[in-house]
Write a structure and sequence with these properties.
Elements: H1 2-14, H2 18-32, E1 36-44, E2 54-56, H3 57-69, E3 72-85, E4 88-99, E5 104-116, E6 119-126, H4 129-135
Parallel strand pairs: 1-6
Antiparallel strand pairs: 1-2, 3-4, 4-5, 5-6
Helix pairs in contact: 2-3
Length: 140
């Protein structure tokens, strides 16, 4: 099941782009939720105003995504690596963005995905990929 989780996650991440969300957020939310359990929980550990907030269900994921992207004029998130740890998978991404203020930046983020019965039951975003790997038990 683990290899299957990784492949599903790779396909899933290709569909989440800023331009696509801005063009058709409602339709994408319906289409892209196939990998997420209806009762999924999401935590964003990257932004101070999001830290500690838990988003629940598909509607919560849509709301969190909209909050996350609203600050950007453009945003590129490229999948660099997927690290398999059984029912927990870490995806590491390179991020480039330009805020509405004109400030551009580049960095990394990572997600720790927890699978149950082939669906994501929980995921958390980290600004530091090492933190995600540690949380998955892949680093000391």
């Amino acid at each position: 099941m683990s290899r299957e989780n990784v492949e599903q996650l790779r396909a899933f991440m290709k569909t989440w782009t800023l331009e696509a969300w801005r063009r058709e957020a409602a339709r994408l939310a319906e289409v892209n939720m196939y990998l997420l359990d209806p009762h999924v929980t999401y935590e964003d550990m990257t932004l101070p105003d999001h830290a500690g907030e838990i988003y629940r269900g598909h509607e919560g994921v849509v709301r969190a995504t909209e909050r996350w992207i609203e600050s950007y004029r453009w945003l590129e998130i490229d999948l660099k690596e997927v690290v398999d740890s059984g029912d927990r998978v870490v995806s590491i991404h390179r991020v480039r963005a330009k805020a509405h203020t004109g400030i551009e930046g580049e960095g990394s983020i990572a997600f720790l995905w927890t699978f149950r019965d082939g669906k994501v039951s929980h995921f958390r975003m980290y600004q530091d990929p090492e933190q995600a790997l540690q949380a998955a038990g892949l680093r000391e």
